[in-house]
Amino acid sequence: MQQNTISKTKMLTVAALCIAIAFLLDQITIFRMPMGGSVSPGSLLLIVLAGYWLGPLYGIVAGIATGFLDLTTGFTNVHPFQVALDYILAFGVLGFAGFFRKMRFGLQIGYVVGTFCSFFMHFLSGIIYFAEYAPEHMSVWGYSAVYNMTHVAPEVVVTLVVISLPAMKHAIDVVTKMVVSPADYAEITAKSKGSVSAAARSVSGALMGVLGGLAFVFSSYIKRLEALAITQATTGAELFAEEPDRLARMVERNTEYIFAFETLGVIFIVIGAALLISTVNGRADS
Q1: For the domain 1-193, what is the CATH code?
Q2: Which residue of 3, 33, 72, 180 is surrounded by the most CB atoms within 10 Å?
Q3: How many Å apart are CA 115 and CA 81, to the nearest integer?
Q4: Mean pLDDT, rounded, of the chain
């Protein structure tokens, strides 16, 4: 007779492994934003998987623990609540993915929900504690949204593509069968058959297009800052009257990311177009 539960020891072991691997992956930085935030290969996924395998409570605890570990390697400290938002809560809410573990495409949905909640924590932090860095002609809300989207969205898009590949789906399924109870495994996999609906592909394609557009908007904004800095240097005009050196500092921090933003914009738009084209072709065939 099969057990329909797994031991607390096994659950804690799985959670600890997820925390350890997430922490290690978080130390691999693909690129780092000037005021905090970075893109790492799959660090968010491990916390989402903790919630997916063990449920939301263990996922949230695993995320909080990872956030505390991340603080040991250095962090941006403006205010204690800012630290909580950007590190403790931003990792902790990834565990919300566990609420969707028994839905169809539960891992993908949980990953999107968890990472959106994480983005929202960074977004709030940007509005409250980093408003002074917003350009004079851009709202604080818009600046925080675009800034934080540029380091959360790339990892989200790449990870969603990777976990949807047949080989990766099979690998995750094998591990899922090993770490959850037979009863949970049956429920988790019961609704995993079938293809993604046309509506889901349309929404995803539109979202990718919007993200691509935002990446190009931010790239154009940085180029505009660069042009203003050149104008200020050649004419002596103080375009940022309250703090003359502020423009130069912003340009210095951000110009190196122009290529990255434009590359991401192309990737998002291509993925979005592919999803929308597949939807149109699917309807034409039916």
Answers
A1: 1.10.1760.20
A2: 180
A3: 20
A4: 76
**Which token pair is 46?**
């491990």
Q: Is residue 229 within 8 Å of residue 247, measured between CB atoms?
A: yes
CA 24 to CA 282: how far, in whole Å? 41
Longest dimension (CA), the chain: 83
Query: Span 72-77, mean pLDDT?
Result: 70
pLDDT tens track for 177-203: 888 888 888 888 776 654 455 666 677
Going from N- to C-terminal start, the domains of the chain cover 1-193, 195-286
Per the CB < 8 A criterion, the answer to whether 92 and 115 are in contact is no
Q: Is the model's pLDDT at 1 over the cut of 50? A: no
Place of tokens 């790339």: 154
Contacts of 200 (CB under 8 A, 6+ apart): none
Rounded Cα–Cα distance for residues 93 and 111 (Å): 11
